[in-house]
Structure formats: structure tokens, C-alpha cells
Design goal:
Blueprint lengths: L14 H5 L6 E4 L39 E4 L15 H14 L3 E5 L5 H13 L3 E7 L2 H9 L4 E7 L2 H8 L3 H17 L3 E7 L6 H13 L4 E6 L6 H13 L4 E6 L6 H10 L4 E4 L13 H11 L11 H12 L16 E2 L2 H9 L19 E4 L5 H10 L6 H16 L6 H10 L9 H6 L5
Parallel strand pairs: 2-3, 2-9, 3-4, 4-5, 5-6, 6-7, 7-8, 8-9, 10-11
Antiparallel strand pairs: 1-11
Helix pairs in contact: 2-3, 2-11, 6-7, 8-9, 9-10, 13-14, 14-15
Bound molecules: zinc ion.
Family: Belongs to the alpha-IPM synthase/homocitrate synthase family.
Pfam family, one: HMGL-like
EC number: 2.3.3.13
Length: about 450
């Protein structure tokens, strides 16, 4: 790490996490008073930061849902991301944070898969206070392995769409219904909570889906998960489907949505609006193909947009996201909602000036960086305006006239337009070349504020 930015974080944080920050820009941490919290904090505050009230205006309506539970499948579906494999230690570490944050269910993995997987699921189940879930096909050895691992919930699944029944399972609808019922019966007989998934529900013949849902409900299934396995749902259609499933079962409903069209979180929320109690999500939305509904998007939408308390400590979301990115080997794009480097960054003149005055001007208002343990940043580059440059120069001890601010801003923009780094050294050099006078130096201020390009 060659830039000075690391100094800001070295003492308590993993500097490698900072390396992924924006490559060619000048990143400046806003001073206190605009409301900041350390980006890489590793412990939660005594009082979790809660949502800010929804803004008055066109969309000021927050009574659609009363509650929403979070079922995390980072360690199961998330691990099925091509190229991703979590070690035993990775799983334990991620599970322990999810547990401390108050996640309602942690799907630890697929116990029949391997000894290491079995041990990870077993040890997560015994060491966490939340509900641990193990996945099982509707196959005896899978169900027994899941039960033997000591999980509080077994999630058993079978394809119900004709395309998967025929070309993946090579079975018949009758086999599917029978094996589903037998598997649920076995889990219930063992006294364990049972979740059943009709896999590929959104591409399943509706009458058959209802038939299977009713059959497993009759033998006492606790949860019906409705998976949009191939990501083809839309919010309106999914809402109707969840309502329909609800008409045919007394079990609680859970939804599992995929992001092939970028609709996973929207579909999960539509499911909750339609009466589902819980959504399956993964941190950074990792998972099969384009991934799952994102933990961070779902939780923050429920908390901020729906003004509904999940009970989850959202201030650890940034930390959780970084650990999962590291362990999964999947980088988080800068423009990723909630957890991307740009989620609370501002460069363009009007936005940065507005945010300096009041962060609500160009941020959602109902979601702040503090709420997710992140940090608001001003980024200097091609789109920087004079307001930001003046702020930065004054903080560096300069006392510029309007004309000098404009001159330095031109240099910053030109430099940024060439995709070059605009460091604090560059900014000072531009100021000196423009002969901007200095106020009395405050060395401690200088020490505190570091800049990275
Ligand atoms: Zn999935």
C-alpha cells in the first residue's frame, strides 16, 4: 500500500480492505460534524444506529409490512458461486458475525457434502445462538446427515418444474410428491423444524405446485420456501404467487430469489409484502449465477424504506461485506448498493456541495453511512466543483480567494480527467503554484487527514 490513506486506518483495520477503494481519484474523508463513523470498525456500538424517519413526499408510505425475518444463505447458496469455496474456518467466522448481528437463520451448508462441511455445520449449530439450518435433498442419507449435524432446522428441497423433474432428476411428479412428503415426515419425526422448497417454483405448473404445498403441509411442514431458482420472477407476479401459496398452507412462508435480471431483492420484498415472513439472502448477493437477493440490500430496505425493525445490528454490514468479499474471492463492485465503495461517495460539484451542507440533499436520508458502519467520502476528480476544493484547501490551511479556488479546481479537474491520482500533495502543489496564501498551519489537522488517490 503506497498511499497515505492507509495511515487513517492502520491501527485498527485491515489495510488490504482499503486497497479496493476507487483507483484514480482523490478520496477525502469528511470531517466530523457531518456525521461519520469509522469505515472499518470492528465492534458494534452500545446502541445500534436505527433508521431515520422516512421523508415526507411522494413515496411517504411505510405501512406495507409489519416484520421481516432474514435467512442467510451465504454459506450455502453463496458458496455455490462459481469458483468460491469457504474453508471450515471461513464458515465459522462468517457465521459468528451473522449470529452476533442477530440474523434469524444461518444456512450453514449441505452436511452430506463432505466431512469438513458436516463439521462446519455441526460446529456452527452448537456455537451460535441463532437457528442453524442444514440443506438436504429428499434423499435418506442427506436428511440423516443434516439431522446428525444437530441443526435446529432442516431445509429439504426437490424440483417441481417439469423441465427439472425430467431433465435434471429423471423422475416423475408422483415420485417428487411422495419423496417430499416422506422427507418432511422424517424431519418432523426427529423433532426438528422443517423447511420444504419446491425448487424452481416459479416455473412449476401451478396446480402441481399447489398439490405439493398441500401435501407437505398436511404432514406438518413448518416453513414453505418458494424459490425463484432461475430468477424469472417479477415483483408483481411473485407477489401474486406468494399470496396463492399462502392460501394453500398454514406453514410460514419464506422466499428465495435470484438476481438474473437484477430483481432478486425487489422480488424478495414483494414476497414479504404478500405475506411471507422471511427472505433468503446472501451477503454481497453472492450465489449461483448472478447470485441471490443481497443481505445488505434487503435488510436496509426493510429498515429504511419500510421503517420496520429487523432486530439486526446493521452497523456491522460493511465489516461483514468485506469479510465475505475476502473469503469468497469475489470483489464487490464500487457501485454495489449499500456496500460498494461509491455507495456514500460524492464527486460531482452540485452533489458534493449539497452533501457538505446537509447529507440528506443527495443521499437517501433514510439510510446513512453510520447505519451500515461505513463512511461518507468526498472524491476529487474530473467532476469536482469549487465548493469541495474550497473546503479542502481551507482544511489544509490555505486561505484562497474565489479566483484562486477556481484556478485550483481547474487543475484538479484536468488532472482527474487524465485518470491521474489527485493526492493531497497534488492539491497543495496546485495551491502553491496558484500562489494561494496560507493561514497559520495546524500540524495536528494535517496529521489527521490523509488522502488517497
Ligand atoms: Zn438458489
Amino acid at each position: 500500500m503506497s498511499c497515505g490513506f492507509s495511515k487513517l486506518f492502520d491501527r485498527e483495520h485491515d489495510p488490504s480492505a482499503v486497497n479496493s477503494a476507487i483507483g484514480t481519484r482523490f478520496i477525502y474523508v469528511l470531517p466530523p460534524g457531518i456525521g461519520l463513523q469509522c469505515l472499518y470498525k470492528t465492534s458494534s456500538p452500545l446502541t445500534p444506529v436505527r433508521g431515520v424517519e422516512f421523508f415526507q413526499g411522494t413515496l411517504d408510505s411505510t405501512d406495507e409490512i409489519e416484520s421481516a425475518r432474514v435467512f442467510d444463505t451465504t454459506l450455502r447458496d453463496g458458496e455455490q458461486s462459481p469458483g468460491t469455496s469457504f474453508s471450515y474456518d471461513d464458515k465459522r467466522q462468517i457465521a459468528s458475525i451473522l449470529d452476533e448481528m442477530g440474523t434469524h437463520v444461518i444456512e450453514g451448508g449441505f452436511p452430506v457434502n463432505s466431512d469438513a462441511e458436516f463439521e462446519a455445520v455441526r460446529d456452527i449449530a452448537s456455537s451460535t445462538s441463532t437457528t442453524t439450518c442444514g440443506l438436504a435433498r429428499v434423499v435418506d442419507k442427506d436428511i440423516e446427515a443434516a439431522l446428525d449435524s444437530g441443526v435446529e432446522m432442516v431445509h429439504t428441497f426437490v424440483s417441481t418444474s417439469d423441465v427439472q423433474i425430467e431433465d435434471s432428476m429423471h423422475a416423475t411428479r408422483e415420485d417428487v410428491r411422495e419423496r417430499a412428503v416422506e422427507s418432511v415426515e422424517r424431519v418432523k419425526e426427529a423433532g426438528v423444524t422443517c423447511m420444504f422448497s419446491p425448487m424452481d417454483a416459479t416455473r412449476t405448473d401451478e396446480a402441481f405446485l399447489v398439490d405439493v404445498v398441500e401435501a407437505v403441509s398436511e404432514v406438518g411442514v413448518d416453513w414453505i420456501n418458494v424459490p425463484d431458482t432461475c430468477g424469472v420472477a417479477t415483483p408483481g407476479r411473485f407477489r401474486e404467487l406468494i399470496a396463492k401459496v399462502g392460501d394453500h398452507t398454514d406453514a410460514r412462508i419464506d422466499v428465495h430469489t435470484h438476481d438474473d435480471f437484477g430483481l432478486a431483492t425487489a422480488n424478495a420484498l414483494a414476497g414479504i409484502e404478500a405475506g411471507a415472513d422471511q427472505a433468503q439472502v446472501s451477503v454481497n448477493s453472492i450465489g449461483e449465477r448472478a447470485g441471490n437477493a443481497a443481505y445488505e440490500e434487503f435488510v436496509m430496505s426493510v429498515e429504511s424504506l419500510y421503517q420496520t425493525d429487523t432486530g439486526i445490528d446493521t452497523t456491522r454490514i460493511t465489516e461483514l461485506s468485506e469479510i465475505v468479499a475476502d473469503k469468497s474471492g469475489m470483489d464487490t463492485p464500487g457501485n454495489k448498493p449499500v456496500v460498494g465503495d461509491n455507495a456514500f461517495s460524492h464527486e460531482s460539484g452540485i452533489h458534493a456541495a449539497g452533501v457538505i451542507e446537509n447529507s440528506d440533499t443527495f443521499e437517501p436520508g433514510v439510510m446513512t453511512p453510520e447505519m451500515v458502519g461505513a463512511q461518507r467520502r468526498l472524491v476529487m476528480g474530473k467532476h469536482t466543483g469549487t465548493h469541495s476544493v474550497r473546503e479542502r484547501l481551507e482544511e489544509r490551511g490555505f486561505d484562497p480567494s474565489d479566483e484562486e479556488v477556481r484556478a485550483v479546481t481547474r487543475r484538479v479537474k484536468d488532472y482527474g480527467a487524465e485518470k491521474r491520482r489527485v493526492t493531497v500533495g497534488d492539491l497543495e502543489r496546485f495551491a502553491e503554484e496558484a500562489e494561494v496564501p496560507r493561514r497559520t498551519e495546524d500540524e495536528s489537522e494535517r496529521e489527521r487527514e490523509e488522502v488517497r488517490a
